Amino acid sequence: MAETVSLQGDAPKKQARDQALNDHFRSVDSAPQGISVKRPRVAADGFIVSFTALSILAFSLFAWINAQVPDTIPKDLIFFTADRVNAILPIRTFFLVFFLVYALYAHGGLWAKLRLGFSLIAKLVAISLFVDGMAFLSWNFAASTWPVQVQQIFVGLVGLAIFPQTILSQARLPVDSRSPLRRRGRVWEYMLLISVTVFAGLFAAVMAYWYAPELEQLHAIALLGGMGPGVFLAQQVLTMTLGLLGLTRNFFSGWRKFSPPIAVLVPAHNEAHLIAQTIDAIDEAAAHYDGPVRIVLMDNCSSDETARVAQQALDNCRCARGEVIDSPVPGKAKALNHGINLIDEEYIVRIDADTVIAPKSLRKALRHFASRSVGVVGGLPLPLSNKGTLSKFRTIEVLNRHGFTQVALGAFNGIIGVPGMFVVYRRDILIQAGGITEEMNGEDTDIVLRMTNLGFRAVSDPRIRFRTEVPETMVHLREQRTRWFRSLYHVTAHNRGILFEGRTITGSVVLPFTLMNGARRAMMAPLAIFGAILYFVYGGVYLHPEIQTVLAVLLGMPFVMACCVVTLWGRPDLVLYMPFYMGFRLLRSYYTLGAVLTLVYPDKASERAFDAPMPLSRERTPRRRNWIQKALDPANPAEALARAQRGDAERGKEKV
Length: 656
Fold this sequence. Notes:
The protein is of the alpha/beta class and about 650 residues long. Among the domains are: about 75-170, no CATH class; about 250-470, Spore Coat Polysaccharide Biosynthesis Protein SpsA, Chain A, CATH 3.90.550.10. Helix content is about 55%, strand content about 10%. It has helices at about 10-25, 40-70, 90-105, 110-140, 150-170, 185-210, 210-220, 230-255, 275-285, 305-315, 330-340, 360-365, 390-410, 425-430, 445-450, 475-495, 505-535, 545-550, 555-570, 580-595, 625-630, 635-655; strands at about 105-110, 175, 260-270, 295-300, 320-325, 345-350, 355, 375-385, 420-425, 455-470, 600, 610. Strands 5-4-3-6-9-8-10-7 form an eight-stranded mixed sheet, sandwiched between helices. Strands 1-11 form a two-stranded parallel sheet. Strands 2-12 form a two-stranded parallel ribbon.
């Protein structure tokens, strides 16, 4: 085994190691300049405090006015309701307060904040007027009464869409990559998704008919999300069915033997404490792999002994061969592109320097490439250590996300990202897609999207196991999650050209849903506070919501599904941590909120476009855009295109 750095060294070595441990989660990739800023935790804390105070003020104002003159105004911002019943939950008031506070705390000048707040609130008012106007016309001319809950649901769903749409159109974000889009929409993908959705709906309807008393009991204790089987039960049946189809597809995709020569690309920055273990694991996996394995380790501006420890570990390898190459420009993406240019093998295995792969990972992953349609393969990123509460939470998260949801998305080619800790690329398609984008977050998701745009399938196979480090402190956790959640907007902006593009199901269905889910996650902690204020303070003023409606925010059917998933994966012990994990989801929401507060809002519209470098790009093609894509453009499209072309020309001169 290779020599590792001793924990019992002299004081200077121990101090250097501790400093490396404190810094290796932070790098130039943490908050890319120009499109993000590092903000202290007080920004998110201030948002929560201001949101709470403004919510109480809004509730008090409504209550005071109605106390002075009964029924003067509705208890939510509803312009018309035919059934004369006020909403139980003032959803529109929540969005109004959230949008106001977000504009106040967004990172930008006064003019940018005013424009952001006006845009968010104007869209909310416009959709409210439209929905209420349709309800009025339906009641006045068709004698049809819309339940006020229906009006609220419509506005709530659109409110979730308003938030990311406004961010994409007003924040400074990467311009569209304009990478080639050669994929033709496969009818069977849409038909499969539609068929499974119809099946789930029919199944939920049959269950509601035959087992109405039992389902009502589950509804009463919030296990159906407080909304009945038509919504939550159908949703879980949909994902379970797709999960089974995805598992079946993975099985038939990876059964043929295939062992071509591979290059393992490892970018490393201050990883002396773990790099030897990473290399040893690769060598062990090479012993179980029938083809040649070459390790290319890119030492990216390390200030510790990463290069020395790595070289010694490579010298001790029994089955793999390798080398350490200096990558002097800071940034993981830059190190990856540097390494890709040095690799001739047809398949590139990207492994983070803090990741330990299982002995059979290489063999299982490369078998999927026996099919020419496969371009990217990933696996199950389990925590390196099973100790500590954060490790338990991460395991629950991984088993549900990568062991279930990702597999379900793979059933209809809906995977939009594969974690970069361990992923295998087909090199020619990687180059064709433009390589790894630099100076933005989420480069691993971004390249997968662009490779699937070329018509190649992404595979997420949970049988491919690897273990990676988990932050041990809340500071590290906050940095990691802020970077992950912010990447949603970086990646979407860089691929905005595929949004609602019929040729890709990822752009038409999965990415828009992911954006709305990201908005929901950012709003979850404020919504929990909003619901608690409403329930415990103003329950006598408003129609008192049932307790299961409040509990559904934290529990509901997703809680049951998460317990089932971890049990099926052989970890029933994690069920004991599930109630605390539901609380961890609120912490994730807090970090998601903090992430959207790190986005930059310039005063001038011309400053919104950012050309993220794509050094390996060979082709950038302008595409016709629909009206939705035009609404998401950060600036004048012609100006953005010219800016990107000037950047390409300048980088070409630098290479010469």
